[in-house]
Specification:
heterodimer; A: 487 residues; 3 domains; nine-stranded mixed beta sheet; three-stranded antiparallel beta sheet; B: 490 residues; alpha/beta; binds zinc ion
């Protein structure tokens, strides 16, 4: 059977978290938790006679993204009306950009299975979001809080060739939006939404096949499933000598199939024309350069720096730069404790703390552990005041209660036993308790030493300074050996 | 003393300042006049006596303070009753645009132009009749009945701001706001024997002007004279941060010198004196040109070669913009709803039953012109020709300071005359459309009467933001003549 190669392009819509909406002064709020229709005015509800005014901050955010995507920014771009009827669109048209978008011709690097690939970005443009409809049994409810929220549309070229690349692209773009501090890029809340266009062609073929478009993909999982389903569907059609129909599809989450969006919605002629209420948007070169100069360090650059300058291992560097909040937390801890080795801080955040966050299902933003508390704990480990294993237990307790490290160590008596007399006492007890094992060791079974070491450590609840314990145990065993009569 | 309603705006302002009358008294006089004549004229769609008296009492307080010397810089608008075309919003006041689709709608905000009048102390008397969504030249397209011309009740007052023009002509108010997208302030001014200004595009905020053709719409003024209009103009003109197409920068001061117009070059476009123009109209305009010549103007014939393309270009651009602007009237958020079997059926029923025929005609025209496959041939092409028309004016204004022409080819026509012929109605605006396409200001003022005693208007057009010279020339003309003081006998 012929092998088919998928050709995939993604269109991403991301709400920009500016303070106010794209064309009016209403606040941008979380459309999931805010009370419906409390952030609306005559403009974003499309009352007759109202006019839009461009939010300069939204333009700045869009430029930030376009620059980070290496786009050419248009010194003059124009807004256009995209006409269609739907109750979530109060004016009966959406103000968007069509000809002359804000930015074109960019690219972004993605990594899949250790391989780097450059994905071309066709265009980046600004538009306004629609309201939100909730369909009920007998009617539908509309919430216009979201109506007019700035929306950035980022369109890739059809450069993606696998589900892995699609996922890598989506995650990289989400990370970019977060590092630029323009969007929470939260998929679950619909802050970032995906549409995919997909075609397949026989492996090695030059020409592109007929493509379909899947709309409203609202999670990475749904996107992967839908695209994968669509690749199979199209491949089967072509393998059977049938044709792929160019159409717009939806993803049925229940049945796990793509379904044609039939009827009026598909037959749209959007009748784009320049928005007469907004003059062309002219951008000063100097302003663009000012924004460029203030661009924050993005994930890829950070990761590189962590490895090159802070000497972190690549795995930890990855974990720390996957999420902007984690990278911020890491850098704040490094700043709070300049004397501690960054590798240790990276290890504690990327390892034990990261596991605790995952197990609890919370974000680093929500943790009770302050960067000062964390650096105190790592400092105690570095000073040998507490063992590694105790430190993990202390971290777990800090995570649960928010208490400081010293407080917990004191309360639970976890401070390392540095008193040789006490350690010696525990060793003596163990040696008396396990005479057979001692005998075996003395007869040359070296590994028994580790077993005895473990017994003493357990007897001290893991608090013994391992170095000290090791030395004391060896000393006492040597002493026994001398007392033994020769065999 | 003259009856209060017969005073000019300035005389009324003087009387108010002197304490010879009060804003309340003046307002009650206008309300009484409305009660007396509006049953015949039907200029108003909504009268707002409560709001008017509230404004009047506030004005009386301002006047009292001024008399005590606490408020020196008092506007001449304080206490002056004005009317507002029903396409401009006033918070809480019914606003219909002459359409059933907005019946019962009360906007939650006030248009910037109206708000500036209110802030300056004006008294708002009510909302005036209009062709539905300002689409028409006679007010016959209003869903709430035609307005009658005060000079001859069997005739139209012009349109679409026919209600405002008739209200001023019948002395129910001292001035009124209209809107002008293709001639809708100037043509009714000519038909009703009053003075009307369409400012430059961008000079007066469109915020709160319910859009018909967004790139053409302007807020205009009706009054008896240029001097009276200047009071409203200077109050409203200037940048509004709520309207991105409003011009930044200072507004040129209006100077109303008497008489001397020496050195002002007046261009007379040969394309505006066409066959089919009513002989009395041409004669009156020629005579007015002579008066301007006597006042010192230098007259010269000019050419605006693309004039004949203005009408077809307008009837692509305005309907195209309207087709989008009127998409929001879907029965979902405001206005009456005609429920259907499903959402689409509801849209079809609501819009099908509540829009009038002319509105539907233009929505269809505009939708067609923007459709995929037709856009380049119609909308894009029309924009190119619009640029040529704009250039006609720019070239002309290199040689002359203003352009003079008739406002309309004829005087007011009988109600029903163009009922079955929309094209004949469209021709009403043939001399006024070009100024909207070019974005330049135009001012219409009365220059005589035809044999039936119907007023005739002349239009002068200036360069973009050149309102000042239009005021100055009109004021000089009105100092020298008496046409603007003629009263419709009602
Ligand atoms: Zn708003």
């Amino acid at each position: 059977m012929t092998e088919f190669e998928p050709i995939i392009g993604l269109e991403v819509h991301a709400e920009l978290q500016t303070r106010s909406k794209m064309f009016c002064g209403c606040a941008v709020v979380d459309s999931v938790s805010a009370t419906a229709n409390t952030r609306v005015c005559e403009i974003c509800t499309g009352m007759p006679g109202t006019l839009p005014v461009i939010n300069r901050r939204a333009v700045e955010f869009a430029i930030r993204v376009a620059l980070a995507l290496h786009c050419e920014i248009a010194e003059t771009s124009i807004f256009a009306r995209k006409n269609y009827f739907y109750p979530d669109l109060p004016k009966g048209f959406q103000i968007s950009q069509y000809e002359l978008p804000l930015a074109v011709n960019g690219w972004m690097m993605i990594t899949t299975n250790g391989e780097e690939k450059r994905i071309a970005i066709r265009r980046v443009h600004l538009e306004e979001d629609t309201g939100k409809l909730t369909h009920r049994q007998t009617n539908s409810l509309i919430d216009y809080n979201r109506s007019g929220v700035p929306l950035l549309e980022i369109v890739s070229e059809p450069d993606l060739r696998s589900i892995d690349e699609v996922r890598a692209y989506a995650i990289a773009l989400r990370s970019l939006l977060r590092f630029l501090e323009v969007s929470s890029a939260d998929m679950e809340k619909g802050v970032i939404r995906f549409e995919a266009n997909i075609s397949v062609r026989p492996q090695g073929a030059e020409i592109l096949g007929t493509r379909t478009e899947i709309k409203n993909l609202n999670s990475l999982r749904a996107m992967a499933q839908a695209i994968s389903y669509e690749i199979d569907r199209q491949s089967r059609l072509l393998a059977n000598g049938q044709e792929v129909r160019q159409e717009t599809l939806g993803w049925d989450e229940g049945l796990k199939v793509t379904v044609p969006q039939r009827g009026k919605e598909e037959a749209h002629d959007y009748r784009y024309f320049p928005e007469p209420d907004l003059p062309p948007l002219h951008l000063e070169r100097s302003w663009i350069e000012e924004i460029r100069a203030k661009l924050p360090e993005l994930a890829r650059a950070k990761r590189q720096r962590y490895v090159d300058e802070l000497k972190l291992n690549p795995y930890t560097a990855d974990v720390l730069t996957n999420e902007k909040d984690i990278a911020d937390y890491f850098e704040a801890t490094v700043a709070a404790a300049p004397d501690l080795p960054a590798q240790q801080i990276g290890h504690w955040i990327g390892g034990p703390l990261f596991s605790l966050l995952n197990d609890a299902g919370i974000k680093i933003r929500e943790t009770l552990i302050s960067v000062e508390q964390l650096s105190e704990l790592i400092g105690l480990v570095e000073l040998g005041k507490i063992s590694n294993s105790s430190a993990k237990a202390v971290l777990t307790e800090m995570f649960a209660s928010g208490a400081g490290a010293s407080q917990i160590i004191e309360a639970q008596g976890l401070e390392i036993l540095a008193d040789s007399a006490i350690i010696d006492g525990h060793i003596e007890k163990v040696l008396v308790e396990f005479p057979d094992q001692v005998q075996q060791y003395l007869l040359g079974k070296e590994p028994i030493f580790e077993w005895l070491f473990g017994q003493v450590m357990r007897a001290t609840s893991g608090r013994s300074d391992p170095q000290r314990l090791r030395q004391a145990l060896a000393r006492q065993l040597r002493a026994l050996d001398k007392r033994q009569p020769p065999a | 003393m003259t009856a209060l309603i017969d005073l000019s705006l300035h005389e009324a302002a003087q009387a108010l300042r002197a304490g010879e009358t009060s804003a309340r008294e003046l307002t009650l006089a206008c309300i009484a006049r409305m009660e007396e004549v509006d049953g015949h004229v039907h200029a108003f769609l909504a009268q707002t006596p409560d709001l008017a008296l509230e404004h009047a009492d506030r004005a009386d307080k301002m006047l009292a303070e001024a008399r005590k010397g606490e408020n020196e810089s008092l506007s001449n608008l304080v206490g002056i009753p004005v009317a507002i075309k029903d396409v401009l919003t006033i918070r809480g006041v019914p606003t219909t645009c002459g359409s059933k689709i907005l019946e019962g709608y009360r906007p939650p905000y006030t248009a910037t132009s109206v708000q500036r009048l209110i802030d300056s102390g004006a008294v708002i008397l009510g909302k005036t009749n209009t062709d539905e969504f300002a689409m028409g030249s006679s007010t016959e397209n209003s869903a709430y009945g035609v307005t009658h011309n005060p000079w001859d009740l069997a005739r139209v007052p012009g349109g679409s701001s026919g209600g405002s023009a008739a209200a001023v002509a019948a002395r129910m108010c001292f001035a009124a706001l209209g809107t002008d997208t293709g001639g809708s302030v100037r043509q009714p001014a000519a038909f009703c024997g009053i003075t009307g200004l369409k400012p430059s595009y961008g000079r007066v905020s469109r915020y709160g002007l319910i859009a018909y053709g967004s790139s053409l719409d302007t807020v205009g003024i009706h009054a008896h004279s240029a001097a009276e209009m200047a009071v409203l103009y200077t109050t409203m003109a200037g940048h509004d941060e709520l309207d991105s197409t409003s011009m930044p920068g200072a507004v040129e001061e209006i100077q109303l010198q008497d008489g001397d117009l020496r050195g002002i070059r007046v261009g007379v476009p040969k394309e505006y004196f066409i066959d089919g123009i009513q002989p009395a109209v041409e004669a009156a305009v020629r005579e007015a040109l002579n008066v301007l010549g006597d006042l010192g103007c230098e007259l010269q014939e000019i050419s605006l070669p693309h004039t004949n393309l203005a009408l077809p270009v307008y009837y692509i651009i305005a309907p195209a913009e309207a087709s989008a602007n009127l998409a929001r009237y879907d029965g979902i958020r405001f206005g009456p709803r005609k429920n259907g079997d499903d959402l689409w059926d509801t849209y079809l029923k609501t819009r099908g039953e509540l829009f009038g025929p002319e509105v539907k005609r233009r929505i269809m025209l505009g939708t067609y012109a923007l459709s995929s496959g037709y856009y380049d041939a119609y909308y894009a092409q029309a924009q190119k020709v619009r640029t040529l028309i704009k250039q006609d004016f720019e070239r002309a204004f290199e040689r002359v300071d203003l352009i003079a022409s008739p406002v309309t080819p004829t005087t007011a026509f009988p109600i029903g005359a163009h009922e079955d012929d929309p094209l004949a109605m469209y021709l009403e605006d043939v001399f006024t459309l070009p100024a909207n396409l070019a974005g330049v200001p135009g001012l219409a003022f009365p220059v005589g009467f035809d044999d039936s005693g119907l007023p005739i208007g002349m239009q002068i057009t200036g360069p973009h933001l050149g309102e000042a010279i239009l005021f100055r020339v009109t004021h000089a003309y009105q100092k020298a003549t008496d046409w603007h003081n003629k009263e419709a006998l009602l």
